[in-house]
Amino acid sequence: MAPPGPAGAHPTSAEPLSRNIFRKFLLMLCSLLTSLYVFYCLAERCQTLSGPVVGLSGSGEEAGAPGRGVLAGGPRELAAWPAPAQRKRLLQLQQWRRRRPPAPRDDGDEAAWEEETPGLAGGPGGSGAGSSVAEAPPGTLALLLDEGSKQLPQAIIIGVKKGGTRALLEFLRVHPDVRAVGAEPHFFDRSYDKGLAWYRDLMPRTLEGQITMEKTPSYFVTREAPARISAMSKDTKLIVVVRDPVTRAISDYTQTLSKRPDIPTFESLTFRNRTAGLIDTSWSAIQIGIYAKHLEHWLRHFPLGQMLFVSGERLISDPAGELGRVQDFLGLKRIITDKHFYFNKTKGFPCLKKAEGSSRPHCLGKTKGRTHPDIDGEVVRRLRDFYRPFNRKFYQMTGHDFGWDA
User: Residue 378 in contact with residue 388, Cβ under 8 Å?
Assistant: First the structure.
């Protein structure tokens, strides 16, 4: 019989030994997982750095070194690929790098995109499940951060304010052959003295076959803008998003009211003399809606065939149909179709099932779709009477009846 051990000691058994081994195993597992997480974070960081990046092929060679690694995708290797393969690879990398549009300036078109909660998007295919961060193309271990070149825009959305220009631009950005500035440059109305080189530098890089675009709705009502854009390029394609001028004016006023709650009522701003029924055409909310007057200035510098007029109403009721017309006008393949949209009943307008640079549904932000204040019905009637002759002239000039007087 073995002698008893020292006072306070416990007999050695298999159970404490097993616990000790289990604890060591857990410690090693936690260390391994921590190391893998740190390695993953460092790899992600390397992919965002400019210039050469280190390939993660296990050999430690520089990405892009001839004959090394799995697929570094460096400029030298890419140059050796067939032209279609080069374009496909650059498009993959470019689509991955594109992010959500920057917030526009506080200049009358302030909507950013807001992300929908997965599973709440209405309509088939609109669940939006998945990460909100765009995943890297499979096998891509290095980014080409300087692909393409900056070009002056070949197409510009020139108007109109509160017509639906932001929605149109963001819908178009889904197309792989459209690259556009998110913020409004305001070059041809506010910053023309900075020169075309400054303007070009604002543009995103594009590949051969892609279109550079921008949108600034105030161009349409700026007297100098047509001549300035024509001086840049007489071949520039121009897009105008128009909307019932009465509804547009109320929407314009609603936006201003949200920023300045102390402004006079819509009714008092509408008339120079309400008793006599004289409309105050000097008020910008009214003046912008006289589309025929503004169009005359543009037709002195551009043929009608270089202009496309998009219905703001149809952009809501049939976004795919209007986007089809825009894609045809720009000479693009019809890629944006019904499958890209769902109708958000809460907001009252269509949203993208997957916006640029995201795998979740996106809608225009809270600044869009504001509830309009109640306007005196007699004021609305007088405004419709005022706009009717201008609308009819606009229909004749464009060859399209927008149905605002029905």
Answer: no
